[in-house]
Structures are given as C-alpha cells and as structure tokens.
Amino acid sequence: MSGAPESPEAGAGRDAGRSAEEAIIGARRKKAAARRAAGENPFANDVVPRGDGALTVDIAALRARAGSPGEGGRYDEGAVRAQAAGATFHVRGRVVALRSTGGLSFLRLRDRTGEVQLLLSEQAMGAEYGRLEGLDVGDFVEAEGTLTASKRGELSLESRYLRPQGQEQRVENGPPRRRLLVSELVAIELDARGGVRGGHGALSLPA
Q: Which of 76, 120, 74 is nearest to 95 (CA)?
C-alpha cells in the first residue's frame, strides 16, 4: 500500500534543503580547485614543521609554555613572550571557530588536549593570509608561530604559517587512514543516496 501523497510544503522544504546542500558543495569544490590551481594539495596530510627549530607540540603543552594566567584568567603579553623565550611552535588541530575583521583574523583551534586561539595578521603573514579564504569550521589545519596574548588577555599563537590538511588515524595492524575534511564529507553525502562512495569507488571511513 502506498503512503499518503506528499504535501506541497514538504516537497518545497526538501527541494530547498537540496539546493542549500548543492550550493555548499559547489562552493567547497571551487575552493579546492583554486588550491590545486595554485599548485597545492587541498587535502594534504603530511605534517612537518616548516620553520627551522620549530617545536611540534600539542595544545596542552603549548599552553604550559606560557605559564599561569593572571587575575581573571587573563594573560599578559609581555609575561607570555618572556616565558616562551621567542620559541616557534608548530601545532595542528580542528577549527572550531573563525572570525575575521579585515586584515586580522582569530581562529580557535582544538586538539585532543585542549584549545588555543590563533592570531592571524595579513601584515605578518603576507600572501599566506589568503589561505583563510578556503578555510571552514570543522577543517583540520597546522600552524606555526610564537606565543603572545591578545588585548583581551587571551593566550594566542601569533601564526605566520597556516595550512589546511586532513588527519591520519592509524588503525591497529593496518596502514594510517586519513580523517576526512568537512568538504570531503559534504561531497560524499551528495553521493550517499546510492551508497557511500568517493570519487574513485567505495570509500571506507575511519572510526
């Protein structure tokens, strides 16, 4: 027995949802194509420090390098810089918040140990600042920079290098598998109506 006919409102809602989804997918594919045109891998997952002497740390260890905050949990810029002694740190994690005000952007980065703010300045980063145009909340990135504090007393990594990437997840007794970026997951969802498949056939998602 067939079900009740679909109402016009339900059909319109479904079509609107599909249109919004396709718009997101189109925008993400355009961003990926732009990175490829620039000679970059939009889903790179090799993770190595770029600068000489940069120290790769997790976010908890990075925060420990800054010492303890002052009154009200606020950090003092001078104290943080003195504590970090000019060291350059290399971190990676997932973008959980992003806001831009012209040539200055603030990115909230999270890994398994905690969160930290990335302070991104067009003046300091130069052409690298353009990478933010292809970045979305949920993406994984790596960044390098020095510890400082914002005017509001927020501990920050003043980044001079930022690169989007995937994330590898090692499976016991097996090769590493890369955790997909938001853009890849959205593209897969487009094909999910006929089964979860990637561009080159069936795709096994990491746990």
A: 120
